[in-house]
């Protein structure tokens, strides 16, 4: 029997899948239209050149707490001027300091983004005990956990997820695939 938290997560996943199916169906109908067919085909051809995600950027409020928190989770942290970056493998997340995103002059960002606006899912390949140890060291409170479909295999792979929040309130998910 699943817990209420797992049921909520399952309903949210089901709602997301339904939404994505609707978007894809709408996209298919639009691409069939002769007015859009050429542009859609050109865009898809250009998209084949995309090979990886370089970074994601979000604004942060509590700089020192965020830096300490992510270091405790084991991320590499680099600070360079107005941007703090956390690194994992070949990827990174750039955190924009308040002095940057509140300046009114920095426009290369989402216009209305303010903390907390992030929702990140990390693949955890260690043991459940090792994850618990890392989260305890970071003094992270688990806000939900349970089984859910993840991003692998087109969203069909099932894994066990643990959810926490960082000092700014962004949602972090750690998923362990079977």
How would you describe this protein?
This protein is of the alpha/beta class and 178 residues long. The protein has 2 domains: 1-51; 52-177, 2,3-Dihydroxybiphenyl 1,2-Dioxygenase, domain 1, CATH 3.10.180. It has helices spanning 4-32, 34-47, 63-72, 98-101, 128-137, 152-155; strands at 55-59, 76-80, 83-88, 91-96, 119-123, 142-149, 158-165, 171-177. Strands 1-4-3-2 form a 4-stranded mixed β-sheet. A 4-stranded mixed β-sheet has the order 5-8-7-6. A hairpin with a 2-residue loop joins β3 and β4 (91-96). The model is unreliable at 18-37 (pLDDT under 50).
Q: For the largest sheet, list the strands in their spatial order.
A: 1-4-3-2
Largest sheet: 4 strands, mixed
Beginning-to-end CA distance, first to last residue:
19 Å
Mean pLDDT: 78
In CATH, the homologous superfamily of the largest domain goes by the name 2,3-Dihydroxybiphenyl 1,2-Dioxygenase, domain 1
Q: What are the segments in which pLDDT stays under 50 over at least 5 consecutive residues?
A: 18-37
Total beta strand runs: 8
Helical content band:
25-40%
Structural class: alpha/beta
Q: What string gives the helices and strands in order?
A: HHEHEEEHEHEHEE
Can you tell me the CATH class of the largest domain?
Answer: Alpha Beta
How many whole angstroms does the radius of gyration measure?
Answer: 19 Å
Task: Note the beta-strand portion.
Answer: 25-35%
Number of domains: 2
User: Which term fits the overall shape?
Assistant: globular
CATH level-two architecture of the largest domain: Roll
CATH topology of the largest domain: 2,3-Dihydroxybiphenyl 1,2-Dioxygenase, domain 1
Count of DSSP-assigned helices:
6
